[in-house]
Design goal:
- The complex is a heterodimer of chains A (257) and B (614).
- Chain A contains 10 helices and 10 strands.
- By secondary structure, chain A is of the alpha/beta class.
- Chain A has 2 domains: 146 residues, Rossmann fold; 73 residues, no CATH class.
- In chain A, strand 4 and strand 5 form a beta hairpin.
- In chain A, helix 3 runs parallel beside helix 5.
- The termini of chain A are far apart.
- The relative contact order of chain A is 0.17.
- Chain B has 614 residues and is mostly helical.
- Chain B has 2 domains: 218 residues, no CATH class; 228 residues, no CATH class.
- In chain B, the strands form 2 sheets. Chain B has a two-stranded antiparallel ribbon. Chain B has a two-stranded antiparallel ribbon with strand order 3-4.
- In chain B, strand 1 and strand 2 form a beta hairpin.
- In chain B, helix 9 crosses helix 10 and helix 13 packs across helix 22.
- The chains are: A alpha/beta (257), B mainly alpha (614).
Chain lengths: 257, 614
């Protein structure tokens, strides 16, 4: 089967800083792919080019063969890419279920309908999605009252509403307690498996990354420096150097002692 | 040559006084994020105080300048009192509250000023030592103008020194960029805000005080200057004093020359320049992104569909309204039409602001276009009442479509200012274009068709159109369209991420609100039998804001309560002396004591009754 997403030679610089430098990779159907790297490695820049918020200087991003570069985020969404945000973005003046209903209303192209009652549309579909993330019991609560972990799960339900082929999650567990992180990613992994959706996520928490990712890409200073399974990445000397510092640091300590 | 130089110098002298008031406005906005409508009042009071003091100490140079400074200082003191008693309580409220509160202050000052100095225009003395003209290239230039040209940059320099060389000034600049951070660093924000407000009021007072040799002191000074001052602040970038200076010079000099070519342009020109600048630079010449929003707003509660009881109460209310002309006197029937018109207007404004999150300071524009289109349809095109009524809302829609396209590119205060500019441009055109719109004389004799001419029949026409319009907007608020609009308001990022074209959606929301405001204007035109440029004016736009606020912005029913209460209060209060004072006081009481408006009060009451039963 062919790749869901093909990224070729993606590059972006801000002024003199080469934030992303000639990055290429593919995402297979049903794959759970992690994008990691130290702060400033270019993860978020890379991400924002995938979902259309930033225009790359060069390169191509193809979703099932279709070019995404130059397409606004809302159209990329329509082509089957869902996303969650590092800091949750939800409609705070609506209930939990209405948030999911909004995604469904947009998916069914009914946002210009001015006579139906929005809150009565696609209730069953919305409930089913909330079941998926175990939020059904909170469906009538105002979104503004939710705990942060619940907001994250709600975002996941919203992102899945239009049955995406690809889900982009920018630091899905940022700002969460460790136990919540593991629960959220286990939930996501389960959904990936059942729904057959591919996921690309960035993450700082290595426990989360190594527990669930099928494959890991490591970025440093805008360049892709390693790619492989958890075990391969752990054993990779370049990755160790990037994360733990070069030999010179340890050498100095040894000299001191 | 000499003539053009004289024009230039006049323009620069005007720029100085405009800069003084605008810089104060900009400083106040930058630090406190308050859009201070009362700034025009400070300017006016400064002029009156200086009139009194300068007349008292007439003759001496020291007396004159001492009087001017003392008047400005007194205005600064007044600013302090207002800041501490009113504004300090509402810094965390949404922009709209602050705007309406400061408008309440405007009303109170209008009556206070009239009570102290009387309604007559006052002619101040000339400045001793600067009371003649010098000839430059053969053209007489008033010496006082030259003094003003020097004072503007001198004040700019003084402000610059204060802002860059004193600890306080650095704090003010820091607060303009990030208030939270300054608070987190342990700076007492309350005093910083007070001081900035006092400085702003002082500058406005100074601007007014310096004006007395140049123009008669009158009760119209406050609102006549405030529009232009806003324009200058917005063009320069909210919070930027240098920007205010550049913008003041730009506007005044352009104006000085434009009136040579096209004398009527002066009313519209500043607003056109502002519209152009905002379209090219959405945060003004020296403004920065992020300066467009006031205090963060608490998230609204989700909407709920009306329950069975609520529905029954509403049907009963509409039914009573439908039957009322049979029971009440004719003048009450006319008042009820006013109430319905105001309600539709307020509901359409609320749809835009509450549902759409786009605060409009110029919603009357679309009301006025509807009214004028209907009047012209009948008077000039001989269309008859029904075709005019049918066509006019589309004219309002076209105007909203046109101006909305520009407005939705901005957000927050800048969007509000652009709506104000749009309204002022339309108002100016209507006011000036005598041949087409009748200018100040308006269009008279816009009466309904023969069959609809009785108050009772017209009541039912108004009833169908207004209640229909209100029903449509309410329905739209609950519809996917309205929910999406609220979604864009809550989180543009999220809306974009679920496939919504956010700007287009806001544009459509803007247009829908404008169209229904136009419908209200249509009903209004035929019920009054005439239209005047007032129907597009700032005062009506603000009335709409007050209605929405009075009713409570966070409830769909809010504008309905608000409009009914507003028309009733206005009908009662305008019969009294000093009604502005009373009205301003009512506004302040609502803002300070019941910020969730009547709807919030009703909501609490219902909950109390239910709680009592349980």
């Amino acid at each position: 089967m062919s790749a869901v997403l093909e990224v070729q030679g993606l590059s972006k610089s801000f002024g003199g800083v080469q934030a992303v430098d000639d990055v290429s990779f593919t995402v297979e159907p049903g794959e759970f792919l992690a994008l990691i790297g130290p702060n400033g490695a270019g993860k978020t820049t890379c991400f924002n080019m995938l979902n259309g918020y930033l225009r790359p200087d060069a390169g191509s991003v193809k979703l099932r063969g279709q070019e995404l570069i130059g397409t606004p985020p809302r159209k990329i969404w329509r082509m089957g890419v869902g996303r969650t945000f590092q800091i949750t973005e939800t409609f705070l003046s609506m209930t939990v279920r209405e948030n999911v209903q909004m995604a469904l209303i947009s998916h069914h192209r009914r946002i210009y309908d001015i006579f139906s009652r929005a809150t009565r549309l696609y209730v069953d579909e919305a409930n089913a999605l909330l079941d998926l993330v175990s939020m059904r019991d909170q469906s009538a609560r105002p979104c503004s009252e939710l705990a942060y972990g619940d907001l994250k799960r709600l975002e996941l339900a919203i992102a899945l509403a239009h049955r995406p082929a690809l889900l982009l999650m920018d630091e899905p567990t940022a700002g969460m307690a460790p136990s919540e992180r593991i629960a959220l990613m286990a939930l996501t992994a389960g959904i990936v498996e059942r729904e057959g959706v591919s996921v690309v996520f960035t993450e700082h928490d290595m426990d989360v990354v190594f527990a669930h990712a099928h494959r890991i890409l490591v970025l440093n200073r805008g360049m892709l420096i390693a790619e492989g399974s958890g075990a391969e990445i752990r054993a990779n000397p370049t990755v160790q150097e990037v994360y733990l510092g070069g030999g010179t640091v340890f050498q100095k300590e040894a000299d001191h002692a | 040559m000499g003539f053009y130089l004289a024009q230039l110098l006049t323009g620069l002298a005007n720029a100085s006084s405009l800069f003084l008031i605008a810089s104060g406005l900009s400083i106040i906005f930058g630090v406190t994020r308050i859009v201070n409508f009362a700034h025009g009042s400070f300017y006016m009071v400064g002029a009156y105080m200086s009139y009194t003091l300068v007349t008292l100490w007439s003759g001496s140079i020291l007396g004159y300048w001492g009087g001017v400074i003392l008047a400005a200082a007194a205005v600064g003191l007044i600013g302090l009192v207002i800041e501490m008693t009113i504004l300090r309580r509402i810094y965390r409220a949404p922009e709209l509250f602050q705007l309406v509160a400061t408008f309440g202050v405007v009303l109170i000052f209008q009556d206070l000023t009239q009570a102290v100095w009387g309604a007559e225009d006052l002619l101040g003395p000339r400045a001793p030592g600067l009371d003649s003209a010098v000839r430059i290239f053969g053209e007489p230039i008033p010496e006082y103008d030259l003094a003003l040209i020097a004072i503007g940059p001198a004040v700019l320099l003084a402000i610059w020194l204060v802002f860059h060389r004193t600890r306080w000034g650095v704090l003010v600049r820091a607060a303009t960029q990030d208030r939270e951070m300054v608070g987190a660093l342990g700076v007492n924000q309350a005093w910083l805000f007070s001081a900035a407000f006092v400085l702003g009021a002082f500058l406005a007072g100074l601007g007014g005080a310096l004006q007395i040799p140049r123009e008669a002191v009158s009760l119209q000074m406050d609102l006549s200057i405030i529009g232009e001052a806003f324009v200058v602040v917005v063009i320069g970038g909210m919070g930027s004093v240098t920007g205010a200076f550049v913008a003041a010079v730009l506007i005044s000099v352009l104006n000085a020359f434009a009136i040579l070519i096209f004398p009527q342009v002066s009313i519209v020109l500043p607003f056109v320049v502002m519209a152009v600048v905002l379209i090219v630079r959405p945060y003004g010449l020296f403004g920065k992104p992020g300066s467009e929003h006031g205090a963060p707003v608490e998230p609204e509660q989700p909407l709920t569909l009306m329950g069975q009881k609520g529905l029954m109460v509403m049907i009963a209310a509409v039914f009573v309204l439908a039957l009322s002309p049979l029971a009440v006197a004719d003048f009450t029937t006319i008042l009820l039409v006013d109430v319905m018109v105001a309600t539709l207007f307020a509901v359409s404004l609320h749809f835009m602001m509450g549902v759409g999150g786009m605060v409009s300071f110029g919603h009357a524009a679309y009301f006025g276009v509807g009214a004028y289109a209907a009047a012209m349809g009948v008077k000039y095109f001989g269309l008859g009442m029904v075709p005019s009524m049918a066509l006019a809302p589309f004219c309002a829609a076209a105007a909203a479509l046109f101006f909305g396209w520009f407005c939705v590119r901005l957000s927050g205060v800048y969007l509000a200012m652009l709506t104000l500019a749009a309204a002022q441009i339309l108002w100016g055109v209507t006011f000036q274009w005598q041949d087409f719109t009748g200018g100040d004389d308006g269009i008279l004799g816009v009466w309904p068709a023969q069959w609809a001419s009785s108050d009772r029949v017209y009541f039912y026409i108004a009833f169908v159109l207004c209640i229909g319009g209100i029903w449509l907007l309410r329905r739209a608020a609950h519809s996917p369209f309205g929910y999406t609009l609220r979604g864009v308001r809550d989180s543009r990022t999220r809306a974009e991420a679920i496939g919504v074209d956010t700007r287009f959606h806001q544009w459509m929301g803007f247009t829908l609100a404008g169209t229904l405001a136009g419908l209200a204007g249509v009903v209004f035109a035929f019920s009054k039998g005439s239209v005047f440029p007032d129907t597009l004016g700032i005062a009506l736009s603000i009335d709409g804001l007050i209605m929405v606020l009075l009713g409570g912005i966070h409830a769909l029913a809010g504008p309905i309560y608000g409009a009914v209460a507003f028309v009733m209060i206005e009908d009662w209060v305008t019969r009294l002396d000093y009604w502005r004072f009373i009205f301003g006081a009512i506004i302040l009481v609502v803002v300070l004591l019941a910020p969730d408006g009547i709807a919030g009060g009703v909501h609490r009451l219902v909950r109390m009754i239910r709680g009592g039963k349980a």
